[in-house]
Design a protein that fits this description.
Strand content: under 5%
Number of strands: 3
Distance between the termini: 36 Å
Number of domains: 4
Radius of gyration: 23 Å
Oligomer: single chain
Largest sheet: 3 strands, antiparallel
Helix content: over 70%
Order of helices and strands: EHHEEHHHHHHHHHHHHHHHH
Strand order of the largest sheet: 1-3-2
Structural class: mainly alpha
Length: 342
């Protein structure tokens, strides 16, 4: 039985874009192609996908997974064994959480009044983090292990931003822009400047409505901050772009903005895995980067040159972002080996 890419995406819970990316970097190449060029996956491909997803759950980067598969006779049984161990850890954690809740219930039934809301919220949030981050990642995530020290600072900022939003203040106004830069700068600090942690935090916020309620950041509030933050960049780019160019950028900049953290995370994985910018993986990352960039910059090389000049001259364009010199250097070198498609 052969599965088309759409069927495999639906049954595996992944996106078609993810499967295409796995193919582009040589991690999961379909065994066959239909006459019309569609990718077709067989049983061995599905088994390999299982291994990839299992290794991703263990915290391995895509580059590390590729290196693992490069080993002769990579054992599937050992991967399944590690999955079982990981599930055992999750079951143990759930059992401890249940014991805490039983104790809390018994205390309440005895007529006592502990800090119910605070305790439950803390336990719930801890469980959420455990679902999305490995132990090593949590150890590198200041937002998790130093949460009490940061809570007051975040609460104050969230209240300020929410008040502006509820008062109908446009996100493009000066005060929302100022708070948005503070917001994003704190996020970079509290995710240790690591786009991989940032991307996972985004995913957790998107998938966990109860987390949004607990920390007070609804999707509407998040989008308000992102629009205000984007405006800080637009005002800088206005000095370099023509009215038509900036108009195109304003119309398109936010449409795919949420794709950037994961792309930067994948680039960081590639760098730490020691991949060369001119490798196939580096070229694939460069193509994704160029595709996102062109979505708001257009296709004109002269416009692209204006963006590069702005980035070289304006440190404020990096403020509150996860972009550093190492990441930029890798992407620029990888771009030299990519011919843009039209």
């Amino acid at each position: 039985m052969l599965l088309k890419v759409g069927e495999l995406a639906k049954r595996s819970g992944l996106t078609i874009r993810t499967l295409h990316h796995y193919d582009e970097i040589g991690l999961l190449t379909p065994s066959a192609r239909a006459d019309n060029g569609y990718r077709l996956y067989d049983r061995s491909d599905v088994a390999r996908l299982h291994q990839i997803q299992a290794l991703r759950r263990f915290g391995l980067s895509l580059a590390e997974i590729g290196a693992y598969f490069a080993q002769p006779n990579a054992p599937l049984a050992s991967i399944v064994e590690r999955q079982i161990a990981m599930l055992d850890d999750q079951i143990e954690h759930a059992a401890r959480l249940r014991a805490h809740l039983v104790q809390l219930r018994d205390t309440l039934l005895d007529g006592q009044e502990p800090e119910l809301a605070d305790w439950l919220s803390t336990l719930e949030l801890m469980t959420m983090y455990d679902k999305y981050f490995s132990k090593d990642e949590l150890a590198r995530l200041p937002m998790y292990y130093d949460s009490q020290a940061m809570q007051a600072q975040w609460s104050e900022l969230i209240d300020e931003v929410r008040a502006l939003m509820e008062a109908g203040t446009p996100p493009e106004a000066e005060k929302p822009r100022e708070l948005a830069v503070r917001w994003m700068t704190m996020l970079v600090r509290d995710t240790n400047g690591d786009p991989r942690l940032f991307a996972k935090l985004n995913r957790m916020h998107e998938c966990e409505p109860s987390m949004q309620a607990h920390i007070g950041i609804s999707t509407a509030l998040r989008d308000y901050v992102l629009r205000a933050f984007s405006e800080t960049k637009m005002l800088i780019y206005e000095k370099y772009l023509s009215p038509d160019e900036i108009r195109f950028m304003r119309a398109n900049y936010g449409k795919r903005a949420m794709e950037w953290p994961q792309l930067m995370a994948d680039v960081r994985d590639a760098i730490e895995a020691g991949l060369a910018p001119d490798s196939p993986e580096g070229a694939a990352l460069a193509r994704r980067w160029l595709d996102l960039f062109r979505s708001y910059a257009g296709d004109d090389p002269e416009t692209h040159a204006k963006f590069r000049t702005a980035l070289q001259n304006e440190p404020g364009l990096r403020a509150g972002t996860l972009v550093d010199d190492t990441l930029v250097t890798f992407v620029r070198q990888a771009m030299q080996h990519v011919t843009p498609s039209r």
